[in-house]
Please model this.
Amino acid sequence: MSILFSKLPLKKQVLQTRLVVSPMCQYSAVEGHATNWHLVHLGQFAIGKASTIIQEATAVLPEGRISYGDLGLWKDEHIPALKEIVDFVHEQGALIGIQLAHAGRKASTEKPWISRSQLAPTHENGWQTVGPSAMPFHEKDHPPIAIATEDIKNIVQAFQNAAKRAVSVGYDIIEIHGAHGYLIHQFLSPLTNLRTDAYGGSFENRSRLLVEIIEAVKTVLEEQSLWLRISATDWAEGGWDIEEAVKLAKLVESMGVEVIDVSSGGNVHHQNIHVKENYQVPFAERIKAETNLVTGTVGLIKNAQQAETILKEQKADLIFIGRAYLQNPHLTTQFARDLGVDIEWLPQYERGKETL
Ligand SMILES: Cc1cc2nc3c(=O)[nH]c(=O)nc-3n(C[C@H](O)[C@H](O)[C@H](O)COP(=O)(O)O)c2cc1C
Model:
């Protein structure tokens, strides 16, 4: 009896398996609009029987995009192309979530296959970034402008507006991107947040932006489940760590977040990570043990038995997978075969089950 292929009921939805396609930026949007690329990219996972797919980081404001090729939902005109994707995924019986994001000081980059560097505000595809404090991610980067206290409400409002649009598109899940050194994580971490107002200093103050975003987003949700992705540690001395992450998890649980998706790192250039199989699992395990949140783990999970073992040992409830889904968009059916589980394929592909 496979746990990976067992259902997980949430308050208003049922996840059909414990596998989730992790959000992955495609840098293929035009002015924030989804293109055919996104329809095929996300659609292929649904054809391959993925039960839950989280769409890439989608910016709530234009300056909150990582690159000029990021998806956005800062205006109603973005809705129709996203609706085509969501409708297609639903027609195949899968659930789809949107990851709402603001990149903060890590915004204004080139598409990674062109260059890994940041684009200056004077570059035709670049812009002035913002952040909790006027400190760049990399010493070569153009410093962000520290967001004025009175302007923080505009960021919160942008998350709420985007969430409202996401509800009208028909997404099943709204995931707030609080990880990987983007704006929310920049506020959470004492290494990147040097503010002296109500949004900096204590844990309570550093969490305030996220708390306000959750409050604002919650008020516009209908049937959607609210998820949060966090980095559990900065992997750097004096930084955000698992102790504060556990505290945050308890706080967001009390606010109605249903699933926590536990990643790590990305906030400071001098982070010291030793990446290996399951390296982020202990963070999820800790949060799962100390809260009642549905807890996801991610990172270098490459085969079905590995995923099954994590679930069996109760270290997580959900397995998020990124790159292995790029290698094989039909990974879900592959994992089922590997575990000897017979899952139903879509009728158009049913004959593909035959042994040749
Ligand atoms: C091409 C690519 C784009 C990514 N974009 C995002 C993103 O938009 N949001 C996010 O939270 N993580 C993003 N990630 C991180 C993945 O969701 C995942 O956490 C990471 O790749 C580790 O999982 P894996 O070892 O299964 O790939 C991205 C990863 C890749 C490879």
